[in-house]
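Think of the structure tokens as a kind of shorthand, similar to the way a musician reads notation: each symbol stands for something richer, in this case the local conformation of the backbone. In the example below we present two proteins back to back. Begin with the first one, reading the sequence and then the tokens, and try to describe in your own words what changes along the chain.
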Amino acid sequence: MVEEALRFPAGRFQNSGAPCNPRGAGAVSASVKKFALACMAPFALQPDPARITNIWPVPFDKSQMSQAAAALAARGVYIGTSSWRYPGWCGMLYNAERYHMHGRFSQAQFNRVCLAEYSEVFKTVCVDAAYYRFPDRAQLEQLVAQVPPDFLFALKVTDEITIKTYPNLTRFGLRAGKPNENFLNAELFESAFLSACAPFKDRIGVLIFEFSQFHLRDFARGRDFVTELDKFLGKIPKGWRYAVEVRNRTFLHPDYFAVLAAHGVAHVYNSWTEMPPVHEQLALPQSRTCPEFCVARFLLAPGRRYEDAVKMFSPYDRVREVNADGRAAGAKLIKDTVSQGGRAKAFVYVNNRFEGNALESIAAMVTAVGIG
């Protein structure tokens, strides 16, 4: 049974000798209980007090997660992190000694090759770097060379395609504050982005168009964005998994979902500052726009700014705040996809700024799937 293959006993992700409940036996916070009950509700499961005690924290165990990630991938669920170059994960996911040069830890060496060790555990990762500059074939080839054949990448499409007006940020130089003439330029997307990806098409799980929050100067009405998006999606090459992530909650309208569905494109269920929680997005009619696959990204707690999360959670070496609703939503996506028996795929990505440590957040979601 699928349930048996994915079931983990209480504390399975516990590292040897690490107490599962730092508050002491029986001392379980209200947020922990809320998370446990929220996870159980969609699956009609009965609460298990021992389970609730062990929900927080859920320490990350490299060996056990490797087995879990492989079992889930075999059933269509690809779960991983948004980016992977975090020294704070040394001792959890990474062995720091592998990156020593001349007797000391080398950040450059770590950045260059740590994906290989990452892929010993997970079967997918979201490449955020592609958002900031167009990828080239050599860069992608270097990434692909580090991972096994069954590993799938998610790539964020470069922001030159998805920004309507360049923000006033230093990295945009003279373009800052000006309209982007290449916004939703289908020809540029194909020539500058897709052409580099083409040789590695079978290694790419999904391409994500991330649209930062639009302002009134960009689109006075959501329907104007939907109209432009419809034209763009009609021009780009078929045969790829595409997903759209928006950061304007008012854009989550039936017309938006209808356009995505018409083109076979997935809506990205995303946890972000100005967006409704993922469980609320899941409940929206027509939000599952593509029966063949779905995509979710757990990035920030709704209402929290990126800069504040960085200050709160760095260096991302442990979970510092449980997001009960987000964990439950992630578990539900996993459970729903597994129940389809391989007819659909799910790509689920978690960022360190969601709870403080993406590895432990994923461990909690995966453990919740096996509660019972």
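Once you have a description of the first chain, move to the second and do the same.
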Amino acid sequence: MTARGTRIQWPGDVAGAVVLLALGLLLSAPLATLAPRLAAAHEAAVGAWTRLAVDADWPGPRWDHTLAADEAGERLILFGGRDGEGAPLGDTWRFDLASERWEQIEGSGPAPRFGHAVAVDQEARELYLFGGQADGAPFFDDAWRFDLETGAWSEIGTGDGPRPSVRYGTSAVFDGEGRLLVSHGFTFEGRFDDTWALDLETGAWTDVSPPEGEVRPLKRCLHEAVWDAANGRMLLFGGCSSGVGPCPQGDLWAFDPAARVWTELSPAAGPAARSNPALVIDPANARALLLHGLTENGNAADAWALALDHAEATWTEVAPTADGDVPAARFSHDAAILGDRLYLFGGNGDGGALADLWALDL
């Protein structure tokens, strides 16, 4: 049984009138302003949210976890986080899109943690995990590989050479060339502004930060980063720089790993500054999607699209089709795109930890 949102069907005469009115408004606009408006409308176009039903066997409420997509297996992979009491979790779950059922993966794996980061090599069908935090003071600097086909975890041997320090609230992306890029993060000793590359074949870490004195994003944690394959860059947004700068942050940066250069992007307008959002790449529509997060005014429930095929960075607020319920405001959730839908799970809402799974038609 599939859980899909109900569509509202407009009567033919009403729909026709709406189309004619829209055409009239577009044709009356100056041609110089028409193309940007049409492009923005396309970038912000999404369908409806659908809350997916769950069986008795499913992940419990959590936040500060990770959610990733297994494209070939048509499954979502969820790991760790913290429960409603703040305790770290170390369980691994798969959600099968065909059956719409959760399955817990048994076996050994990373120690329970939250605030870790993951990225996926879809061709190799491997998920990579770095860092995180457990109860109290323990922070992690270990790296793990999860085989998406067999469902087995294995630790990546990284030797005794240079490596990023232990950290929580960090970010990780796969650069498409066999490297995991890790940037920024936090421990009780402060926040970081360094960027490292892990060679996934040799296990060797390399500090790819710009030289001292060169531009880089301010030290922070609880930000988000994604890999923009079309432009060969890592994008970093938001986070918290308390102690050294604003918390929350609302800045947007691009990192060229080949040149080891950070460039601040300065859209004319965009989402409110926030930490703990979800940020995902939607390559089919040449955009990145930002969802929810923690702002100065509390939990947010908005969504924004960042155009990736424009000469200048442009944010456009996304307005999902109002066919029914929508996800409540939250932070420390996670999201992943699989096929033509975006999936969002859990987080911390106004009432505490959440365990809901939502799908957004793209």
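Compare your description with these statements about the second chain. The helical segments are 12-28, 31-43.
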